[in-house]
Amino acid sequence: MEFLYAAELKKRFTCFGHFYELGLKNGEKVKCRSVLEIVDGTVPQDEPSAISEMIPDVVVIMMNPGSSRPKKAGYADRVIEYPESGKKRRKELVLTQPDNTQYQVMRVAVSKGWSHIRVLNLSDLRDPKSGKFLEKVEALRSVAGGHVHSLFCAERRDECTFSLQRKTNTPILLGWGQDPGLLPLAEPCMERIAAFPTVAVPSAVHPLLNAHPSPMMQKMKLQWLENILLQLVH
Fold this sequence. Notes:
There is one protein chain. The protein is of the alpha/beta class and 234 residues long. The protein has one domain. It is built from six helices and nine strands, in the order αββββββαβααβαβα. The chain is globular and about 50 Å long. The mean pLDDT is 95.
């Protein structure tokens, strides 16, 4: 398969994210992103927030938003406390700098002819360093309501149900990595998506873990892509 580099992928796709600050019951606020919408030029973008109400071609679930951030300097995140009142589906989307891992997802989309990819995460917490991220997850367990940074918690069931919809029941792509520290987050996620078809590169570490989409070595990146695309043929 042709391996498209980031410069080419940036010409094809635009990324929009929903960024917010999660307000916790202890008064702490943590920076989060609830969704990343990746779209090509065939998807209308004049009103970006409308994309959050569309049904995508595919849903991808990863670990956390990593280094993803709004492109606009000084963007002020709105504070959200869960559960939110009402059932509104529209989210305020802004132009977003994606994490490098998302380029792998774009490569799959090009191969499959997909125009709209919705990226969800086991946790909304924004932190590019997985070690620090897992420490934060662990610390939040002792905070009342600290678990709602995960879309797969009970309080966010309606939001999750809508977010998981796909146009043609395409398999959900899984790629959150192999750190055993993710198991407490992976378990409720897998319970929530148990009825849906999924594709992932399996991990030898644990059945609920899977290979990260964008390993350091180019050779391993290609192997991940080939493995996923082979599964999507069937």
